[in-house]
Amino acid sequence: MMANSRPEPTTPSQFVHRRAGHVMVAYQGRLYVWGGYMELPHFESYTLSTPSKSMYHKSDEIWVYDPLLDTWTSKSGNGFVPQQLSGSCAAVHGDHMYLFGGWTSIQSDLMENNLNYLWRLHLPTLTWELLKPEGTQPYPCDKAACWVHKNRFYVFGGFGPSTSLLQMKNPDFNFVPDNIYHSGWIDQLVYYDIESNRWVWPSTWGPKPSPRAAHAADVTGDKVYIFGGRFQDVRMNDLHCLDLTNWTWSGNLTDGSLQEAPEGRSWHTFNFVSKNKAVIYGGFNTTQEVLKDVWLLDVSLGKWEQVNVDRTGKVLWHTSAATAPGEVVYYGGIRNNLLDVSKPKDHAEDMVVLRFSPPTLQRLVIETCCRYSKVLHRHWHRIPRTLQQILEVRLNNSINSS
């Protein structure tokens, strides 16, 4: 007997909002969402030999969200479009989004499921390009962390196949195999030099973080901070900092701390909301519980603080991006145990916005006018025409969705 947890998706909004393993970046005040997959209704009684039903999102489709208009728009990518992927990582430099690695559902004798390709998407024209840098490529993997600093696109860690070790030339990383799958965790640190079109493996000093996957990283100034991730059977809560000017690792900044700190997790997000403060949200802990907690880290003081936010829910493998100073937008992911094959997966379909500083006056005006549109609508003609157009679009959207 088939038990459907919800109807099969039939509308564009259902397709875009049921998404995990995707990437999302901010560019010129808008959010760009690409890739990932969607869980579908399936049998509730499962065995390991009957995989869950899922489908990959179209790789030539890019969804753009405008926070001022509160609208989603489907755009078509062109050029050398990547395969359908999940677990890739992406970051923006200038007018381009760089996309690395991931897991593809395509299997062949010539290609493993994990990739080490590097794509570049020109965001103004949505044109894809497959780059072919010189130098030793990174290890094929998914669930790596990436960031941009100056004219370099960095990749750290990941989970990938052991057979690729035979193809690597003088790899400068540690590989720890998994006991179940023919893959393992890695601690690779490599960057793509945008100006010279070359992969570079920098030498570092200090205690390097252990191999890991599904961790999170973000840059502030000339330093990158890396938090958590899974290594073997443990989901960690260690915090590491790499100085990108002298290539020195800090060691575990959580080690030996007497203060309260987030529990270990993977599939979480980590974003700087100011020069010295970063926020962590959600994830998956070692006992396979989905988390909903929000933590604020002050790197100048080395202090964690848990933040009470009512509108956050349990979520893992979601994405995050900052569209305005002090504001982080969270999107997509799964709300229940992704590893439990006996139960249907519940997608997180709502967008969550957390603010750690006051919004702009423009945002305040727009949100207030929308909230009290029934009372204020007759006065909209008094505000600038550009704001009137934004308010009309948002009002029409709310009417159509009700």
Which secondary structure elements does this structure contain, and how are they paired or packed?
Elements: H1 12-17, E1 23-27, E2 30-34, E3 37-39, E4 54-56, E5 61-66, E6 71-76, E7 78-79, E8 85-86, E9 89-93, E10 96-104, E11 114-122, E12 127-131, E13 145-149, E14 152-156, E15 159-161, E16 175-177, E17 183-186, E18 189-193, E19 198-200, E20 216-220, E21 223-231, E22 234-243, E23 248-249, E24 269-272, E25 277-284, E26 290-298, E27 303-307, E28 319-324, E29 327-331, E30 352-355, H2 361-371, H3 373-376, H4 385-401
Keywords: Kelch repeat, Repeat
Pfam families: Kelch_KLHDC2_KLHL20_DRC7
Protein name: Kelch domain-containing protein 2
Report on the architecture of this protein:
- This is Kelch domain-containing protein 2.
- The chain is mainly beta and 402 residues long.
- It has two domains: 12-357, Kelch-type beta propeller (Neuraminidase); 360-402, no CATH class.
- It has helices at residues 12-17, 361-371, 373-376, 385-401; strands at residues 23-27, 30-34, 37-39, 54-56, 61-66, 71-76, 78-79, 85-86, 89-93, 96-104, 114-122, 127-131, 145-149, 152-156, 159-161, 175-177, 183-186, 189-193, 198-200, 216-220, 223-231, 234-243, 248-249, 269-272, 277-284, 290-298, 303-307, 319-324, 327-331, 352-355.
- The strands form eight sheets. Strands 7, 8, 9, 10, 11 and 12 form a six-stranded mixed β-sheet that branches.
- Strand 28 (319-324) and strand 29 form a beta hairpin.
- Helix 2 (361-371) crosses helix 4 (385-401).
Quick recap:
The protein contains four helices and 30 strands.
